[in-house]
Amino acid sequence: MSQPIKVAITGAAGQIGYAMLFRIASGGLFGPDQPVTLGLLEITPALGALNGTLMELEDCAFPLLHGVTATDQAEEAFADADWVILVGGLPRKEGMSRADLIRANGPIFTGQGQAINAVAPRARVLVVANPCNTNCLIARSHAPNLPADRWFAMTRLDENRAKAQLAAKAGVNVGEVSRMTIWGNHSDTQYPDYKNALISGRPATEVIPDHSWLAETFIPTVAKRGGAVIKARGASSAASAANAALDSVRSASFPTKGEDWHSVAVVSDGNPYGVPGGLMYSFPIRSIDGQAWSIVPDLPLDGDARSRIDASARELEQEREAVKDLLGP
Ligand code: NAX
């Protein structure tokens, strides 16, 4: 058996944490032969609830789970982690603006970025907590020891939502949908790019001839799906968010198969799509060897796609401006 992979998770007593831990511990992330250890971080008042989750983890008797640390100290949770998944933060509540959320959650990521920098030199980091692109930007700015290509913010739930909508409309299994890009911010300005997506190997725009549905219904349905789930469930997406986080880590950890790609926000260097450098922006990504990745180049983008891509970049620039006092040197 190989050495355990250490996964550190913040907000571990929250609803996404609860939906994620048992899957990781059972082998649902790295497979049935790969042991894992967990480093779980919570705020002090939530340690009691986290202890209950620990009791349940113990009662599952997972043979692959080789150790758990549960703590309110970031450096203890993150020590020597291979992956750090930053989930902890306030979810957006009814009546809370995006700007309120940015200011409420941003400060968490200065300290957590510093802790990763200090104790997790080989870590790769996935930020789930919203606003995830900008929280990731903040954490990364405080962790100069970790190369820029180790930082990710989650748009995979949007990708999965988009695939499910296209599959339902086309009347096919969701596994038939590939090359689904979410461009930009995990927000209403994201661009779910149906024009470059495939259904059963054919352009989605050929399989779904109803182009007004694609342009006018599909895009807002994907972008506003989180709100629709809150309305129906009375709580924000949890199991689907946990699932998307696991998909994101898996896609980064194994080479991309065939000609497909996946969506995740990575640091932009301005190439190849002219997105301003330094932003954490979601692109079509291929993993090369389970460590390195590249942005899929040369996708055709018409004027409408281009203006959506630019609008999401502008929103991210505004978010960066709003947190500039929280950014590291
Ligand atoms: P919960 O409120 O259920 O759990 C959050 C947990 O984080 C709580 O247990 C809380 O004690 C803990 N926490 C707060 N501050 C912390 C800190 N400084 N260090 C460690 N832990 C801390 O929220 P949940 O539904 O699990 O959502 C978590 C985050 O995911 C939210 O920010 C939410 O907005 C975000 N989401 C992101 C999604 C995405 O696609 N990127 C989709 C789902 C979700 O909305």
TrEMBL record:
Domain (Lactate/malate dehydrogenase C-terminal): residue spans on this chain: 155-324
Binding residues annotated for NAD(+), in chain numbering: 11-17, 105, 112, 128-130
Its EC number(s): 1.1.1.37
Keywords: NAD, Oxidoreductase, Tricarboxylic acid cycle
InterPro entries associated with the record: L-lactate/malate_DH, Lactate/malate_DH_C, Lactate/malate_DH_N, Lactate_DH/Glyco_Ohase_4_C, Malate_DH_AS, Malate_DH_type2, NAD(P)-bd_dom_sf
Residues that, per the record, bind substrate: 92, 98, 130, 161
GO biological process: malate metabolic process; tricarboxylic acid cycle
PROSITE patterns: MDH
GO molecular function: L-malate dehydrogenase (NAD+) activity
SUPFAM superfamilies to which the protein is assigned, alphabetical: LDH C-terminal domain-like, NAD(P)-binding Rossmann-fold domains
Keyword check for Nucleotidyltransferase: no
Family indicated by similarity: Belongs to the LDH/MDH superfamily. MDH type 2 family.
Summary of the function given for this chain in its UniProt record: Catalyzes the reversible oxidation of malate to oxaloacetate.
Protein name: Malate dehydrogenase
Species assigned in the record: Tautonia sociabilis
Lineage: Bacteria, Pseudomonadati, Planctomycetota, Planctomycetia, Isosphaerales
Gene that specifies this protein: mdh
